[in-house]
Cytochrome P450
Amino acid sequence: MALIWPTLVVIFIVYAFYELLNNIQNRKRYPPGPKGLPIIGHLHLLGKNPHHDFLKLAKTHGPLMYVRLGLVPTIVVSSADTAEKFLKTYDHIFATRPYNEAAQYLAYGQKNLITGKYGPYWRNMRKLCTQHLLSNQKINSFQSMRRQQVELMIKSLKNEACDHRVVVDLSAKISSLSADLTCLMVFGKKYMDEDLDKRGFKAVIEEAEHLAATPHLGEFFPFLGVIDLQGITRRLKDLSKVFDEFLEKIIDEHVQSRDQKQSKDFVDTLLDIMQSGETEFQFDRRHIKAILVDMLVAAVGTTATAIEWIITELLRHPQVMKKLQKELEQVIGLEKMVKESDLENLNYLDMVVKEGLRIGCCELDVEEHFGLATSREHPLMVIPTYRLNNA
Ligand code: HEM
């Protein structure tokens, strides 16, 4: 036991030395960047908002900049042209995802889409999800459900804010609408907060996002991963049990009630695929659960955050809000509710949503911890400069 720490220190020094030599050899292949320190690289240059710090550094070193985060060489991209090269032109080279603890525990060993490794499995799984879960036909089949839920929310807003004149927490309303819409589409019914865990849906999903986004010492100094100094692996293991028990329960419920159903939610569709045995790759309960976690995590927070951002921007720009209200009044009228089929006639609303997504960059900046950290095999940071310049 007494030998553990000296052994670890020796391993640390040897490994760090090896990585440094490697980095020095590779240095010529990297773009310019600020001067770093031994072992920690450029970590000392980063504060609470790394994307702000990267942007400042990029102003001196250019839109394609090299930094080393601990032992990990990283390229920081901060212009639209360069980002396009990485994310579009050469996307196939940079698209794959590295090993990552969160994906290991929450996505059943990277069997999902969001953190899955780029390759035949990912391509096939993506095709399958696009064809069966995210096709227009499937999404349209939930239209009346979406309408009902939005109507319910509007009724409750009217009741609380208009009739009873109480202050309404709009973020909480939007968040619970988003969770309800997602649960109904994915699982076929709403779940109460405590069905997932006593902390509730929002808190659990936020913890998953938080743990996945928290800078993990083991990612900057891989040999430190096993020690789990920050307790992240332990928390991920606990969280994965919460998700797994919940998903197992849902799959069991679906298996039991399959014959009595008219409309199919995502779980039914995935069970059909599993039982058909027609996939070109192994497809069992773990794959179903990995995709369900993806859908849950990908849909709940993003949708709520996008709506919140857009409403915030509208409040900050009253003249835009007025113009939008005018369009709604003229095209729909004051007494009617907007239907999904009306959306194609609401051009100004379309522009507002697109602009909101562009400047809010919602999914990519969930907690304002990062600009856009694309967790790619070759670490790559993309900085949304518009938002930062206008902060
Ligand atoms: C306003 C809402 C949304 C925003 C802004 C958003 C944004 C994004 C972004 C930026 C990515 C790419 C991430 C990357 O390349 O690493 C992504 C991927 C994904 N999103 Fe969304 N999303 C939203 C809503 C949804 C919803 C409602 C669902 C499902 C019902 C969903 C399912 C997915 C899936 C499955 C992926 C992975 C796709 C892949 O890797 O090919 N998203 N989303």
About this structure: Strands lie at 64-69, 72-77, 372-374, 380-382. Residues 285-316 form the longest helix (32 residues). Confidence is low (pLDDT under 50) at residues 362-371. Residues 37 and 129 are 45 Å apart (CA to CA).
